[in-house]
Amino acid sequence: MASKRSVGDLKSADLKGKKVFVRVDLNVPLDESLKITDDTRIRAAVPTIKYLMENGARVILSSHLGRPKGVTPKFSLKPLVPRLSELLGVNVGMANDCIGEEVEKLVAALPDGGVLLLENVRFYKEEEKNDPEFAKKLASLADLYVNDAFGTAHRAHASTEGVAKYLKPAVAGFLMQKELDYLVGAVSNPKRPFAAIVGGSKVSSKIGVIESLFEKVDILLLGGGMIFTFYKAQGYPVGSSLVEEDKLALATALFEKAKSKGVSLLLPTDVVVANKFAADAESKVVPASGIPDGWMGLDIGPDSIKTFNQTLDTTKTVIWNGPMGVFEFEKFAVGTEAIAKKLADLSGNGVITIIGGGDSVAAVEKAGLADKMSHISTGGGASLELLEGKSLPGVLALDDA
Ligand SMILES: Nc1ncnc2c1ncn2[C@@H]1O[C@H](COP(=O)(O)OP(=O)(O)O)[C@@H](O)[C@H]1O
Ligand SMILES: O=C(OP(=O)(O)O)[C@H](O)COP(=O)(O)O
């Protein structure tokens, strides 16, 4: 990817009094009472916002939260306002929408250095469709565009890609630049052996990535919700575990491809199963081939942790995306915590460790190990796509330097 124009190239004269549409990734984990459980992505957005405020810009923040289908109160960005205000040292305004008359009035009332947060841009289906009319409406709110949403840069959506066509200049924020600088450097010529650990629940988007990862990595460890599709493809019973039925053929093909590429593909040999999806579920450890009917796999088991640890001991670079289990429930956090601890130890021994993704980072933060890692990335899917060698649409759309 050609290098992109940066927000740092814009000076006070370019910014004073200007309305700036800033796409950030504030897709943070919230608990049931809508309390933020990890604020990494909010903190990461601060340097760009502060720079704009200090140079007298009027800052319009736009983000998504979760994957809502239409307007859904539990995916509102409102719970983020107090923390954002605290970090920025100003009262951040909140709009009830992301386009329309009310938003235009709030934007018009913004003082120089003021900040307004727009409501979840995914409340409109046009966002993910990258609808040009919707992108134009977003663009019409401002005088220039900054994209600092690295975590969403792999999505060609209206607020990440479309808007850059209608709002110029369109530049990269400081977080976007920092992530690209680090990740492109670390993965273009990695120290080997190079391992990727992939878990989490976004099976359909990540399973496709695995094939390309075979071109880059020497070792691939799988955990989280991903593994049951592979087990089922091997003919194992999976009970009521998460499975992507339409990816079974792909999973079978991936076993073959790993062999032909000489990549060690490791699946957990045992799993922790639960009788329901709940913190207080009954649980037991079973072999990967023995998940009973009516039970679901929610974590990797102790034998798998041991094998994964031994394998990781042989590596020089590791990228980790997606938790090994449902770590939000204490009972099923053991595998994720073990991997976090292993990577922290390896970092201390000179291994490059890169953690990507909202939930993986939250798990590492929860374990108090974030500062031990080489790089904490705010993008899971985005960092994996970079690793695959793909260009990110949210970056491509920006002005060349
Ligand atoms: N075995 C599993 N079954 C269902 N969900 C799982 C399983 N393992 C992990 N998860 C869930 O995956 C989610 C994180 O997935 P994902 O968004 O793909 O990761 P990241 O945000 O790190 O990229 C967590 O909420 C976790 O509870
Ligand atoms: O959390 C995100 O991605 P990640 O889980 O891959 O890190 C981003 O906010 C993108 O969200 P999306 O995968 O719903 O487009």
UniProtKB/TrEMBL annotation:
Residues the record lists as binding ATP: K206, E328, G357, G358, D359, S360
Cofactors: Mg(2+)
One Pfam family matching this protein: PGK
Keywords per UniProt: ATP-binding, Cytoplasm, Kinase, Magnesium, Nucleotide-binding, Transferase
One GO location term (cellular component): cytosol
EC class (word): transferase
Documented EC number(s): 2.7.2.3
GO MF terms held by the record: ADP binding; ATP binding; phosphoglycerate kinase activity
Compartments (UniProt record): Cytoplasm
Record-listed (2R)-3-phosphoglycerate binding positions: R41, R122, R155
Annotated catalysed reactions: (2R)-3-phosphoglycerate + ATP = (2R)-3-phospho-glyceroyl phosphate + ADP
Family to which the UniProt record says this protein belongs: Belongs to the phosphoglycerate kinase family.
Subunit structure: Monomer.
Protein name, as recorded: Phosphoglycerate kinase
Native source organism of the sequence: Iris pallida (Sweet iris)
UniProt lineage: Eukaryota, Viridiplantae, Streptophyta, Embryophyta, Tracheophyta
